[in-house]
Every structure is written in structure tokens, then in C-alpha cells.
């Protein structure tokens, strides 16, 4: 793991850790999150719960924004404004990955896209758009 991915791993919130999420390293300049399948993420028998998938996407988007902000990350507070999730296929009982990509980051607003996949990155499981408010820390 790179120094940045180690630093970001320390910033994963308790929810992410409770769900078994971790940062595997960096992929195309953004943190790669992974989540093993377990009963805590089970929805209908044999499939991931949609909320677990959305939670992984949210964490991927947040971690991508932290990485993109770089040194400025210590001076701003990020506040999620909204999230829109598109479910593309049912998640099965294997490890799931997610990666966010900052599409735009201005002085006050950031737009991030995230995708989740399982065995093949070219076959996404779900994707989302998240918008964030960036506020200076006081």
C-alpha cells in the first residue's frame, strides 16, 4: 500500500470497518475499496443487500474526494449533499470492489462518480453520483 492509501485507511469510518471494507491500494490515482462477502451484508439469500452496495459506493466516493483534495483536505470539511445509486445487476457472494472518480472539485462543490464491481471491472454491479459541499474548517 502507498502512504496515501495507508493514511486514507485510517480515515475509514466505523460503519465501513464494521461492514468489512478496506482500502486495497490505489487504482488509476484513486483508492480501491474492497469488501468481503459476509452475512452482515446479505440481502435475499445468496445476494448482497442493496444498502451494503450503496454504502460501499458512498465510501469509495468519499475516499476518492479525500485523495483528490490532497493537502487541502486538512483545511476543508466535506458534507454529502445527495447520492443517486443505479443498481445494474445482483451482487453475489464474492468480494466486491469500488472506486470513485472526482469529476469536478471547485471551491464549494464537488461531484464524484463511483462504480462497484465483483469479478470483472468491465461488468459493474452498481454506480452512483454524489455531490458534496466543501466548507472551510473553522
Question: What would your notes on this structure say?
Answer:
It is a single chain. A hairpin with a 2-residue loop joins strand 1 and strand 2. Helix content is 24%, strand content 40%. It has one domain: Roll (Thiol Ester Dehydrase, Chain A). Strands 1-2-4-5-6-3 form a 6-stranded antiparallel sheet. By secondary structure, it is α+β, with helices and mostly antiparallel strands. The model has no long low-confidence stretch (mean pLDDT 91).
Write the layout of secondary structure elements.
Layout: H1 3-10, H2 14-18, E1 21-27, E2 30-35, H3 50-69, E3 76-87, E4 96-105, E5 109-117, E6 126-136
Antiparallel strand pairs: 1-2, 2-4, 3-6, 4-5, 5-6
Q: What are the salient characteristics of this protein?
A:
alpha+beta, single chain, 3 helices, 138 residues, globular, Thiol Ester Dehydrase, Chain A, 6-stranded antiparallel beta sheet
Offer a concise description of the structure:
The protein has helices at 3-10, 14-18, 50-69; strands spanning 21-27, 30-35, 76-87, 96-105, 109-117, 126-136.
Shape estimate: globular
Helical coverage, percent range: 10-25%
Class per helix and strand makeup: alpha+beta
- The count of strands amounts to 6
Question: What is the CATH topology classification name?
Answer: Thiol Ester Dehydrase, Chain A
Q: Between the first and last Cα atoms, what is the distance in angstroms?
A: 32 Å
Instruction: Estimate nothing, just give the exact number of structural domains.
Output: 1
Annotated CATH architecture: Roll
Strand content: 35-45%
Look at the structure and give the mean pLDDT: 91
Number of H/I helices:
3
**The biggest beta sheet, please?**
6 strands, antiparallel
Radius of gyration: 14 Å
Element-level helix/strand string = HHEEHEEEE
CATH uppermost class: Alpha Beta
Amino acid at each position: 500500500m502507498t502512504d496515501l492509501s495507508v493514511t486514507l485507511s485510517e480515515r475509514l469510518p466505523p460503519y465501513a470497518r464494521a461492514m468489512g471494507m478496506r482500502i486495497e491500494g490505489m487504482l488509476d490515482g484513486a483508492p480501491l475499496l474492497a469488501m468481503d462477502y459476509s452475512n452482515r451484508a446479505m440481502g435475499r439469500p445468496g445476494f448482497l443487500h442493496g444498502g451494503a452496495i450503496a454504502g460501499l459506493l458512498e465510501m469509495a466516493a468519499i475516499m476518492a474526494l479525500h485523495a483528490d483534495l490532497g493537502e487541502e483536505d486538512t483545511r476543508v470539511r466535506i458534507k454529502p449533499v445527495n447520492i443517486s445509486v443505479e443498481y445494474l445487476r445482483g451482487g453475489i457472494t464474492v468480494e466486491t470492489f469500488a472506486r470513485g472518480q472526482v469529476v469536478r472539485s471547485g471551491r464549494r462543490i464537488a461531484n464524484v462518480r463511483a462504480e462497484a464491481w465483483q469479478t470483472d471491472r468491465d461488468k459493474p454491479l452498481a454506480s452512483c453520483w454524489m455531490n458534496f459541499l466543501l466548507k472551510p474548517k473553522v
